[in-house]
Amino acid sequence: MRTRILLLFLYLCSGLVVFAQDGLPPNPVPGKCYIRCIKEDKWRDEEKRVVTRPAYKQQEVVPAVYKDTVVQVLIKPASKRYEFVPAVYKKVTETIQTEEPYHQITLVPARFAPAMEEVVKQPAFGRFEQKSSVENCKSKDPRDCMVLCYVEYPEQISRIPIQRLETDATVTTEPKGGRTITITKEELVAPPQVKEIEIPAEYRAVTRRVLVKDETVRETTVEALYRIEKTRVLEDKGGMDPVWVEIDCKLTDPNVLPIFYELGSARLTPGSRSIIDEKLLALMTEKPLIRIEINAHTDARGSNEYNMDLSQRRAQSVVDYLVSRGISPARLIARGYGESLLKNNCYDGVECTEEQHAQNRRTEFRVVPF
After folding, report:
1. Using only C-alpha atoms, what is the Rg of the chain?
2. Which fold has domain 250-370?
3. What is the tens place of the pLDDT at every residue in 152-194?
């Protein structure tokens, strides 16, 4: 990268030619640096509502309603008795209904079957991506080492478990209940023949339950359940046409980002996040097409494997924080170098002060081309 910028800088500063050649910045200003960028794809987040369980009917039985009434039942009618020839009676029985029957209702609940529904979270798409290897380029013209690749990204599908209604709730009815009693009474067969004596009627009070309202079913509707699934829709297709962005020449070389971590940790402190907002978030917001590489380094204390892993996690924590602030992941690169690029002679086995070790524990950033 430094070789590429140096060649471009010398070419622009020579002042011998005013150019607008294909692939290079038009109308360049001597002494200025330019970085090659591409326009990214623009996506829009949408929400899709998926029915995880449809609405269905729920039923319950409302019991029958009775009213108790008292009925005077004649068990012996008024009659006459004679002094010499008594009246003649015979006994008869009569069946009386004391409780009316009702219809018993049985509920058959709704049945569901498990199923799956597929939601396309992101459609398949492809785009051209340009790659270059300036460090290994043997040509003086950096464009000779640029390769245009068409990269395809597969469709992203989310499978959501749902329930489908097989049969809805129903009811069955069956007659139940009902009571009767048998009453014995006397009927007059022959009146008295001599002296007529009035015999008053006799009654019996019987409590009778009268059906006011038969057993019924109360039906309610249970609302459907939904799940909101987030999807991405391509709103504006980017491209591989180069866009040259004027940039401070110092930003193409590694710049120290003055942030600090806890011992052996990759977690960002509140102060470190404020510095990232000030140094990197503001720059990437001001120039929305540039791409930045985050490089993390450690001192030589500890094993090479541990330091390499720790530095990679620390660089990634900066990238993750910027993504959480709305920066596209395609514009960020995280690289951990461990103890491989020390700034002094504090290698393994060399006794150094804490200040000298601190010079090697650093996080850097630089602007790189797409």
Report:
1. 48
2. 60s Ribosomal Protein L30; Chain: A; (3.30.1330)
3. 878 888 888 888 888 888 888 888 877 888 888 888 888 887 8
Sole residue written with tokens 């866009």: 243
135/1 Cα distance (integer angstroms) = 7
Of residues 67, 46, 30, the one with CA closest to residue 120? 46
Around Cβ 148, how many Cβ atoms within 10 Å? 9
pTM over 0.70: no
Whole-number Å distance between alpha carbons of 352 and 346: 6
| Residue 239 token pair | 């491209």
Model confidence pLDDT, tens digit, residues 311-328: 999 999 999 999 999 999
Residue 18 near residue 219, CB atoms below 8 Å: no
Burial string for 96-131 (b: 16+ CB within 10 Å, else e) reads eeebbebeebeeeebeeeeeeeeeeebeeeebeeee
* Alpha-carbon span 135 to 137, nearest angstrom: 6
- Cα torsion for 97, 99, 100, 101, to the nearest 10°? -120
Report the alpha-carbon distance of residue 8 to residue 31 in Å, rounded: 10
Q: Which of 71, 362, 36 is nearest to 203 (CA)?
A: 71
Give phi and psi for 252, each to the nearest 5: -80, -15
- 295, 334 in Cβ contact below 8 A? no
* CB neighbour burial string for 56-84, b if at least 16 within 10 angstroms, e if fewer: beebeeeebebeeeeeeeeebeebeeeee
Sequence spans of domains, the chain: 56-110+168-221, 250-370
Q: Residue 276 contacts by C-beta under 8 Å, 6 or more apart in sequence?
A: 257, 259, 268, 318, 321, 322
Residue for token pair 């791409």: 291
